[in-house]
Design brief:
Length: 97
C-alpha cells in the first residue's frame, strides 16, 4: 500500500493514465490538482474463493476547490468495480475539459 502522505506523483498506481490510490475501503482516482477528481467507497464486499470482491461501490465526482460532490452514483453487482471505474473515467473526461 502506498503512503498517500509521502508518495510522489511517480509512485502512484495508474488507471487509464490517471493516479489511483486505495486506502482501506476508500479509493481516490484522478489528479487532485485538476478541476475534479473521483472518490469511491467500497460499501459491501462478498467473499470468494480468491478473496473478497466489491459488490457495492459509491462513486462521487468531487470539486477540487470546494471538496463538495458534484455528482454521485452507486454501483451494485458482481461487475460493480469495473462499472464504477468506467463511469468515473467518463466523468473525469467530461468535467476536466
Amino acid at each position: 500500500m502506498l503512503d498517500v502522505n509521502s508518495a510522489n506523483r511517480n509512485e502512484f498506481l495508474e488507471y487509464k493514465g490517471r493516479p489511483l490510490v486505495r486506502q482501506g475501503d476508500d479509493i481516490y482516482y484522478g489528479d487532485m490538482s485538476d478541476k475534479f477528481y473521483i472518490y469511491m467507497v467500497v460499501m459491501n464486499e462478498n467473499e470468494t474463493p480468491h478473496g473478497t470482491m466489491p459488490v457495492m461501490i459509491m462513486v462521487q465526482l468531487i470539486d477540487s476547490n470546494t471538496k463538495i460532490p458534484k455528482e454521485q452514483k452507486v454501483f451494485n453487482g458482481t461487475a460493480a468495480l469495473k462499472e464504477a471505474f468506467e463511469f468515473a473515467d467518463a466523468w473525469l473526461e467530461r468535467y476536466n475539459r
